[in-house]
């Protein structure tokens, strides 16, 4: 399994899940596959240009290219769909419900998994048409079964404090063009098997869910931005079974064992060339500008000989003496993992934290594992200050 463990304060600035090659082994064999090198170059240009613009006189620009795309506009509430133009990385083509009508969720309380009422979130996400879903007021939504999201939907929590909690949470199942923005998702529980509405005219039998915050199963063109996740029974975000073209950005992930599962199983070789920014099996992974504190088992884990390049991160180890190691080489004896290419560069290691490097030391080995240019690790605190849900007020810059 691919996971990293119990990071009570894990923030993501630009968390690019570069899963452009999960469906096909050749980047040219599928019309949906993007050249990872071109995407990396584009991300680096976006970050560089945003950093330059942030120096402009009287500019509200932050140097975060995603936020700078929309947050400076005090009229964001009347121009919500501008957000769909702002993703970068492999999920940049996720348009969500852009071009569709605004659907206002008014009823947080009456979740009917089979016959959802109009005005509920479940009714909104199971419609056939593209929809931009917003919320009339602050609300807490407790789902009775998993929320199955259909294609071309945006769930936009800006302007309201929206919590999905204390029950099954979100599933993206072979759906495309999904944006989830500004939602608090926490304390998710496994859901029992049963009938669930999964489209405007279809209800199907779904097996027991695992208790993930967001489970992406065969999904593509997905963007999850400025959400806050914590304390779910299984993973916070799972992307499996050939899920592709995903960007996860500006999120705050807390109090959890297994923050992410990326890829189904070591034997599921459709994921072999997957390029992801954090902890994996197979493939090439870039761990950049994250803040890890007080993990229980490890901060970064991998199996099946991944190449991992940790750059510009801050690792604060827990006080327990046996949990100081940042890394965990999963399911392999030392005779094998000592040849895996794992490297730390520019990381800050605090309270006895240590990173066990292995394999090659040359920079060229890790070039393919680089997804963006890291900032110095001393800037991690300032980089991540606006991670998670934002406090947006109508008529003001968000």
TrEMBL record:
One of its GO terms (biological process) is pectin catabolic process. InterPro entries: AmbAllergen (IPR018082), Pec_lyase (IPR002022), Pectin_lyas_fold (IPR012334), Pectin_lyase_fold/virulence (IPR011050), PEL (IPR045032). Residues 1-24 form the signal peptide. Its EC number is 4.2.2.2. The keyword Calcium applies. Its cofactor is Ca(2+). SUPFAM superfamilies: Pectin lyase-like (SSF51126). The keyword Signal applies. Residues 138-321 form the Pectate lyase domain. Binds 1 Ca(2+) ion. Required for its activity. Keywords: Calcium, Lyase, Metal-binding, Signal. Pathway: Glycan metabolism; pectin degradation; 2-dehydro-3-deoxy-D-gluconate from pectin: step 2/5. It catalyses: Eliminative cleavage of (1->4)-alpha-D-galacturonan to give oligosaccharides with 4-deoxy-alpha-D-galact-4-enuronosyl groups at their non-reducing ends. Pfam families: Pectate_lyase_4. One of its GO terms (molecular function) is metal ion binding. PANTHER family: PECTATE LYASE 11-RELATED, PECTATE LYASE 18-RELATED. Belongs to the polysaccharide lyase 1 family. This is Pectate lyase. It comes from Brassica campestris.
């Amino acid at each position: 399994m691919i996971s990293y463990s119990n990071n009570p304060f894990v923030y993501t600035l630009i968390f690019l899940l570069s899963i452009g090659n999960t469906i096909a082994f050749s980047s040219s064999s599928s019309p949906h596959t993007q050249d990872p090198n071109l995407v990396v170059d584009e991300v680096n240009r976006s970050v560089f240009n945003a950093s330059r613009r942030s120096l402009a006189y009287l500019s509200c620009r932050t140097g975060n290219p995603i936020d700078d795309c929309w947050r400076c506009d005090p009229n964001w509430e009347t121009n919500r769909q501008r957000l769909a133009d702002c993703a970068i990385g492999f999920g940049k083509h996720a348009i969500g419900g852009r071009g569709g009508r605004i659907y206002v969720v008014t009823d947080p309380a009456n979740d009917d998994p089979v016959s959802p009422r109009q005005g509920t979130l479940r009714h909104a996400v199971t419609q056939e048409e593209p929809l931009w879903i917003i919320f009339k007021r602050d609300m807490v939504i407790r789902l009775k079964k998993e929320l199955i999201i259909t294609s071309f939907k945006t769930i936009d929590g800006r302007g309201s404090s929206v919590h999905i909690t204390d029950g099954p949470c979100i599933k993206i199942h072979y759906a495309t063009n999904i944006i989830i923005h500004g939602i608090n998702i926490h304390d998710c529980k496994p859901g029992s098997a049963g009938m669930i509405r999964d489209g405007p005219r279809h209800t199907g039998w779904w097996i027991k869910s695992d208790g993930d915050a967001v489970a992406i199963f065969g999904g593509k063109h997905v963007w999850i931005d400025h959400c806050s996740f914590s304390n779910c029974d299984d993973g916070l975000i799972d992307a499996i079974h050939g899920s592709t073209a995903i960007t996860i950005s500006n999120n705050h992930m807390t109090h959890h064992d297994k923050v992410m599962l990326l890829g189904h199983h070591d034997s599921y070789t459709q994921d072999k060339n997957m390029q992801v920014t954090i902890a994996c099996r197979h493939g090439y992974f870039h761990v950049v500008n994250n803040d890890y504190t007080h993990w229980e088992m490890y901060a970064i884990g991998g199996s099946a000989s991944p190449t991992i390049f940790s750059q510009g991160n801050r690792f604060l180890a827990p006080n327990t003496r046996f949990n100081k190691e940042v890394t965990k080489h999963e399911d392999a004896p030392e005779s094998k993992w000592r040849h895996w290419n794992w490297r730390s560069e520019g990381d800050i290691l605090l309270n006895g934290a240590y990173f066990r490097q292995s394999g090659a030391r040359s920079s060229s080995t890790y070039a393919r594992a680089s997804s963006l240019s890291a900032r110095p690790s001393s800037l991690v605190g300032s980089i991540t200050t606006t991670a998670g849900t934002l406090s947006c007020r109508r008529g003001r810059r968000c």
